[in-house]
Amino acid sequence: MKNQEKITLSNLEKATPRRRRKTRLRGMVTLGEAARCALTERLSEACAAAWQAVPHQHLRRPTRCVAPVAAARQTAIYFAHVFFAANLTRAGRMVGRDRTTARHACARIEDWRDDADIDRAFNLFEPALRVWLETFIPEEEA
After folding, report:
1. All structural domains of the chain with their residue ranges
2. For position 140, what pLDDT does the model report?
3. In sequence order, which residues have a C-beta less than 8 Å from that of residue 64 and are 6 or more positions away?
4. Averaged in consecutive runs of 10 residues, what is the pLDDT profile of the chain (142 residues)?
5. Selecting from 1.10.1750.10, 3.40.50.300, 1.10.3720.10, 1.10.1510.10, what CATH number does the domain 30-136 have?
6. For 128, phi and psi rounded to 5 degrees?
7. What secondary structure does DSSP assign to 62-85, as a single string?
8. The predicted structure's pLDDT at residue 30
């Protein structure tokens, strides 16, 4: 008994051979992609909130709020989906909504674009959003 060493967790870890686990890279997002996703969401929210003149914090509220806030929320979802190619699930999740609500928001904004003034404004937003995104995260980093 005197020669036996007391078994502790640290001794056990030293004695147990470690296996190297193969990590799967599929499904993992690189830092550039993650930063790009986060930035596109923030740009979409900020631009839509500024367009409707509402605080951007109101876009994430769980209730509908007043009409300008709902319109800004739908616009943010549309910008994320159409301008930045986010899928509907991610575009909706950005403001706390589900995929079907995001689909409805995009359809509603498409109907609004029949108005020439709104269509012209959206046509000006797209290049500005892309320039801002490329300023913060150049394409080769993503």
Report:
1. 30-136
2. 59
3. 70
4. 49 45 45 79 91 91 91 95 91 94 96 93 87 76 52
5. 1.10.1750.10
6. -65, -45
7. SS--SHHHHHHHHHHHHIIIIIS-
8. 57
